[in-house]
Every structure is written in structure tokens, then in C-alpha cells.
Design brief:
The protein folds into three domains: about 100 residues, Helix Hairpins, CATH 1.10.287; about 50 residues, Roll (SH3 type barrels); about 90 residues, Alpha-Beta Plaits, CATH 3.30.70. The protein has nine helices and eight strands.
Length: about 300
């Protein structure tokens, strides 16, 4: 055997070696990557089909707002799809490591150290995941709910829930902005659209007003609003006049409340205020203006 032949055999593996490398290493890794990508697309497709079916049932029904069950199902599907995709990629990574011939047992000790380091460094992420888990299971709010979230540090976030996962909650406020809130930073969640809501209307009036006449007018406003074809679909019962809420120096404040469908309290409140102002103006009763008291310059002048 010549020197050139020995050199070629030492540098280039034979054809059988290349075939073993392809079948035992490269091909399994490629197949697992393709399988993970296809499984990911299937999960996204399935979750999109289910959410589209829920949305179609809502659009084809007579309900003006989503039911609590539909909102919870929508949020639950998003969480399940997120967890399923994470599990698919973790399993594919495990199979790829096995295909590379890396001994799994040898990775136990390094994985323990890395897991402990990540546990200390990613406490916020773990806190977000746990908070999101209890948020979903306890049905605190779901997709389409109008919520007010009190966050750590004293800040707040208010808007309509557009997405809920185990880690974050996404809200869209009245300006169209999307607010992303980590679930672990939520101190208090106020759901403004769960089961039913309440519209509260305060009416400031002068102290000299005839309260009997005003009470009659406001009761009539509530009756007309409840029997109005448009408002009757939003109201659960007739608006109620609660009476005098507070007494100030030169005015009294009356309060009217109305139980509404979830999320419709703002629309009902605006409509009631318009009806009240129109009714009082027709009767010649002026709403008490809000005046600011300003001290006289002679009184505040330093001595």
C-alpha cells in the first residue's frame, strides 16, 4: 500500500461511514426539526379554528356581549396552545440531543446547576407564570372583558383584554394602544364586564330646587329609558333614583343607578345623562355649575 493511499484513508472516511452519519445523525435531526415546525403550525391552525368557531357562535347569536363561558374558553385556548407549542419544542430539542449522541445522564449535574441559576435569575418569570395560571383557573377575566388592573408601584392599566397567556395580559385602551402587563405585577384586577355592570349618574342641583318635582322628572326619565327599544336591550332593569347622595355648600347631588349588560355601563351612562339634561332643561331646572372658590387678594396678602 502506497503512502498516498494511507493518507487518503486517514483523512477521508469511507462511504459506509458517511451513510451511518447521514442515517444516524443528520436525517433524524432534520426530521425532528420538520416535525416540530409542522406540529407548531397544526397547533396554531387548530387554535385559530376553535376561536373562529367561538367568535362565529357569538356573532350568530342574539347576545350583545360574550358569555362568561365563551370568554373563559377563548382565554383557555390561547393558554393551551402556548403550552403545547412550548412542549413540542422542548421534546424536539430532547430528541435532537439524543440523535447527536450526547449522553443524557452526563447532563443531569450541569442541568441542575443551570436550573438553580435560572431559578434565582428568573423568579419574575416564574411569578408571572404562577399568577397567570391562577388567573385563568379562577376566571378572574377573559378575552373581551373590560378590566382595570392595579400594578406594583401604584400604576394602573385599563382597557379591553385582547390576549391572555400564562405570562402576560394584553389590553387595548380607548386610544387604540396595546398595553402588555406581566401577570406577576398585577396586584388587583377589577373586572368591569363580568356578568353585569352598573351605570352610576350623579346630578348636581341647586339647593333651592323643588326636590319633589325633580324626583318625578327623574323617575319618568328612568321609565322612558327602560321602555326605549334601543336602551331596553342594554338595561337589565329600570334605572333607579337613589336620592340625595351628598350635600355641599350651595348644591345637592342626586344619584341614579342602572344595572346593564357587561361592558355597556358607559354607553348607558352617557345616554341617561343626555336624557336627564334634556328633561331638566325642558322643565326650566338648571344643573348646578361647578364653581371654584378663590381667596381674595387682600386676605392672602402677607402682613
Amino acid at each position: 500500500m502506497t503512502t498516498s493511499t494511507l493518507l487518503a484513508n486517514s483523512i477521508l472516511p469511507d462511504v459506509t461511514g458517511w451513510r451511518l452519519l447521514m442515517y444516524e445523525r443528520v436525517l433524524p435531526i432534520a426530521l425532528w426539526i420538520i416535525a416540530a415546525v409542522l406540529a407548531n403550525r397544526f397547533v396554531n391552525w387548530a387554535s385559530a379554528r376553535v376561536t373562529m368557531r367561538i367568535d362565529a357562535q357569538f356573532k350568530n347569536s342574539d347576545s350583545l356581549v360574550r358569555s362568561e363561558s365563551a370568554k373563559h374558553q377563548h382565554a383557555l385556548i390561547q393558554v393551551i396552545s402556548w403550552v403545547a407549542i412550548a412542549a413540542i419544542y422542548l421534546f424536539a430539542a430532547y430528541q435532537i440531543v439524543k440523535a447527536l449522541g450526547v449522553p443524557i445522564n452526563a447532563l443531569v449535574a450541569p442541568a441542575t446547576v443551570i436550573g438553580a441559576a435560572l431559578g434565582f435569575g428568573a423568579q419574575r418569570v416564574v411569578q408571572d407564570l404562577l399568577a397567570g395560571f391562577f388567573l385563568i383557573t379562577e376566571r378572574q377575566y377573559g378575552f373581551g372583558d373590560v378590566v382595570n388592573l392595579s400594578l406594583t408601584g401604584g400604576s394602573t392599566a385599563e382597557g379591553t383584554v385582547s390576549d391572555v397567556t400564562l405570562r402576560v395580559t394584553k389590553l387595548r385602551n380607548t386610544d387604540g394602544e396595546v398595553i402588555t402587563v406581566p401577570n406577576g405585577q398585577i396586584v388587583k384586577a377589577t373586572n368591569l364586564s363580568k356578568d353585569w355592570a352598573r351605570a352610576v349618574v350623579d346630578i348636581p342641583l341647586p339647593k333651592t330646587v323643588d326636590m319633589g318635582k325633580v324626583n318625578t322628572l327623574l323617575h319618568r326619565v328612568g321609565e322612558r329609558a327602560y321602555h326605549d327599544p334601543k336602551m331596553s336591550t342594554l338595561l337589565l332593569d329600570e334605572p333607579t333614583l337613589m336620592g340625595i347622595e351628598s350635600i355641599d355648600l350651595d348644591q345637592v347631588n342626586l344619584r341614579m343607578v342602572a344595572r346593564t349588560l357587561p361592558g355597556k355601563q358607559f354607553e348607558v351612562g352617557r345616554n341617561l345623562r343626555e336624557r336627564i339634561v334634556r328633561s331638566l332643561a325642558t322643565a326650566g331646572i338648571d344643573v348646578a355649575p361647578v364653581t371654584d372658590t378663590v381667596e381674595d387678594e387682600e386676605e392672602v396678602k402677607p402682613q
